[in-house]
Amino acid sequence: MHKFEEITTHTKEIFQGKIIQLKVDNVTLPDGNTSKREIIKHPGAVAIIALTDEGNIVLVEQYRKALEKSLVEIPAGKLEEGEDPQTTAKRELEEETGYTTDNLQLINTFYTSPGFADELVHLYFTDHLQKMHSSPDGDEDEFVELMELSLKDCEQLEQQQRIHDAKTSYALLYLKLRGLK
């Protein structure tokens, strides 16, 4: 046993949704005491840093009900069961932006909120975009607006908290460190 490991003694399933599962685990702590952990199970997601030939960042604006406001974000989406993350990334790029690519580079993977969720995001990069001849059908309950902005414009949106999510902030920091102007 690892010195910080918590041993699950009982799990209670609370909710099974279309995207997430919520459970409460009773755990024994490393010091022998017990506690409860509320955990969200998530299938994982992808996000794509996509640059146009002009060096603009491809983004989408969409309403986020949990926040009761719209955010500007890099394209992203949920992994389907058994789907390869790179396949998901290409699909989501196409569905949300009308662009496609055959050149996706995995940048990193990261957990979004490890204190209560197991969602793992696979972050990809491409600067080899092709505009699709016809726009694919997106998700029926997803409404997005395509944006192509400079890094400077994105930084202004961050100041206004219109870009205000971790994956997009991570992406912009990555681009700054790469020297994008």
TrEMBL record:
<feature type="domain" description="Nudix hydrolase">
    <location>
        <begin position="40"/>
        <end position="176"/>
    </location>
</feature>
<dbReference type="InterPro" id="IPR000086">
    <property type="entry name" value="NUDIX_hydrolase_dom"/>
</dbReference>
<feature type="region of interest" description="Disordered">
    <location>
        <begin position="78"/>
        <end position="97"/>
    </location>
</feature>
<protein>
    <submittedName>
        <fullName>NUDIX hydrolase</fullName>
        <ecNumber>3.6.-.-</ecNumber>
    </submittedName>
</protein>
<keyword id="KW-0378">Hydrolase</keyword>
<dbReference type="Pfam" id="PF00293">
    <property type="entry name" value="NUDIX"/>
</dbReference>
<dbReference type="InterPro" id="IPR015797">
    <property type="entry name" value="NUDIX_hydrolase-like_dom_sf"/>
</dbReference>
<dbReference type="GO" id="GO:0016787">
    <property type="term" value="F:hydrolase activity"/>
</dbReference>
<dbReference type="InterPro" id="IPR020084">
    <property type="entry name" value="NUDIX_hydrolase_CS"/>
</dbReference>
